[in-house]
Protein 1
Amino acid sequence: MADHRLIVALDFHNMDKVKALVTELGDSVIYYKVGMELFYSVGTEVIAYLREQKKEIFLDLKLHDIPNTTAQGLASLMKLGVTMLNVHATGGYTMMKTAVENLEKQASTLNTPRPKLIAVTILTSMNETDWQGLGQTMKIQEQVVRLAKLTKEAGLDGVVASPREAALIRQACGDDFLIVTPGVRPVGAAVNDQSRIATPASALENGASHLVVGRPITAADDPKAAAQKIIAEMETIQ
Ligand SMILES: O=c1ccn([C@@H]2O[C@H](COP(=O)(O)O)[C@@H](O)[C@H]2O)c(=O)[nH]1
């Protein structure tokens, strides 16, 4: 059985691997994330394929540029018909507000639903040492909450953050705000290059609306069994 809160990251660079995984996971997964590795390799072919398969698509290209360039880039991506797009919150309030307003305008002109727009706060791979190396003096979690509030004020639908910060974001930004959390690792799974991790159940308990899971499924010996185990764990938290 599928859980709409699970988004599987298709971090591959060819369509054969995408098709093999999507076929193997079948109806158990309905939401996929397409990131830079895949989109830069195969382009819009993967979006057309996932739409044909009736899947929801989070196109995770993390736009980060001046307001006009970001807004126009998103407007081009919106025409692909994806469910969710994103920018970096550190692009600032004006960039985010311009982006969402432009998407709204374009959606109304084209008479199509506007894709959800969310903002990346601080990458889940960052730890406090990396963070302080950037000259930052606040703790990561304080800065994440600050960026989440700014994202909400700018009119976006939610954020990408670590599951460890989800409870604070939920408290600060309310029930309707999307909190999409990568950095999800079932007990015993390899951590890889992630730092601020939590288990699927703990991410949901903390208030995450969606979990992004890549390698714990895609690199598993049996990806379908790995996905089903994660879904079973998620189902314990409603
Ligand atoms: O802060 C962030 C933002 C995005 N990601 C992306 O999520 C997946 C996670 O994959 P795993 O294999 O489960 O680590 C990946 O596509 C990242 O680009 C993130 O991890 N952290």
Note: Residues 9, 11, 35, 120, 123-124, 160, 182-183, 192, 194, 212-216 surround LLZGTKA7 (CB under 6 Å).
Protein 2
Amino acid sequence: MDETTMLSVTNLSVSIDGQPVVSGLDFELKNGERLCLLGASGSGKSTIAAALTGTLAATTRVTGSIDIRGHEVAGVPISRRPPEARAAAIFQDSLSSLNPLVTVRRQLLQPFLRRGVRGRAADTAVESLLARVGIEQPRRLLARYPGELSGGQRQRICIAVALAGTPGLVVADEPTTALDVVTQARVLDLLRELSDDRRMTLLLITHDLAVAAKLCERAIVLAGGRAVESAPMDELIAAPQHPYTRALIDAASVTVSALHLASQVDPTSTSGLPSPGPAREVSP
Ligand SMILES: Nc1ncnc2c1ncn2[C@@H]1O[C@H](COP(=O)(O)OP(=O)(O)OP(=O)(O)O)[C@@H](O)[C@H]1O
């Protein structure tokens, strides 16, 4: 693994109660890349997220390799990982991701205090973080508890908490599923903005093709705990190869134009579809 690689997953398998849930998964994520794991309910997405973030139940059996920045962490819980190999997590359920009994200010301060940033410097860091995630009037919000925020505000706070630890790798598991469409679009814009400078490497996990297409340049399609197709996002949508991917796209009823892929459309093409890109992988 070279220094341009943030995450390398090799032959990863996870079994729960003796049942295989994820089988033989291989993929790599380069620094600053935005990759999506796309699959229907039950395809193993959240299990993969938990394996990557070190939050699987202790009884789960993990084999294969998860290498984050040169550290082997397969089966290693988050508390035993070196700080540089801890992926930050953003989950669907922002209410249960935050401690309901602790104010927003205290939850945001914690990562800074752990790094020895205190007093005025810590408060300033929290305020600039809130500005970064687009929270207006941050001072009013800091004194509140998570239950006193809207869903969109709460998800922004979760993103801020994830970013406060200055993670290299962020694993976002269905981060917008619980939000209404307008708030969903804003949170997606925010994640895109935050990752545009390529300091954040993003692994998005979703069942929603439209969400994936807005944010990611590449996708791996999962079915039954296995990767069945891997391709650049525009190619995947324009010409899905695996029957499962085709079904996913048909079900989403999305069109290339609706996915704002116009900028990638080949102007010489009469089909209106993106031009073919580099090679792709499809399972039989
Ligand atoms: N704690 C558990 N005990 C037993 N089986 C589990 C457990 N967690 C997950 N599974 C099983 O593992 C499989 C994959 O589940 P997982 O939650 O990873 O899928 P998913 O793609 O994230 O689904 P969803 O989109 O519905 O959250 C499912 O068949 C699920 O029933």
Note: The longest helix spans residues 181-196.
